Amino acid sequence: MPPKNATRAESIEHMSAVMREFMARAVLFQDAVARSGGNNSTDMQVVGLLMSEGPATPGELAERTGLTAGGSITAVIDRLELAGYVTRERDAADRRRVIVTARVETVMDRVGPIYGRVGARWAEYLDTLTDEQIRFAGELFARAAEINREEIEHLRET
């Protein structure tokens, strides 16, 4: 934490360092969670997207993840299906389409306790904050996620 008499520039520099540390630790945490569940981090991110955004065709998953080169998304889906994390079924309305769905019960069984433990620790910390601080933190993380999403799109276009 910067000293109370830090200049605005020093505080912003400190915040930049904290954000870099947070992002690096978040990536490493996700990798450790994936490995504990028998996967790699890319595969677990695909499962996470299926859980948060719903079932998708392989093409839609390729768009969501940016995994478009030479069958990459098919290899991910194959690994996840073999590990029991997803199902692949024909679309009832259009038998040519395949829909990939996360098997939530498998995810919760294998990595749910880890996220539950972290969630409980976060809840304990958030209980120490004021409502205003929680609202600000929510805005900060939402904006950080939006900036990251925009930058991912920019990188994929170049």
TrEMBL record:
Residues 32-134 form the HTH marR-type domain. The keyword DNA-binding applies. One of its GO terms (molecular function) is DNA binding. It comes from the Bacteria. SMART domains: HTH_MARR. One of its GO terms (biological process) is response to stress. Keywords: DNA-binding. Signal peptide: none annotated. The keyword Cell membrane does not apply. This is DNA-binding transcriptional regulator, MarR family. It comes from Microbacterium pygmaeum.
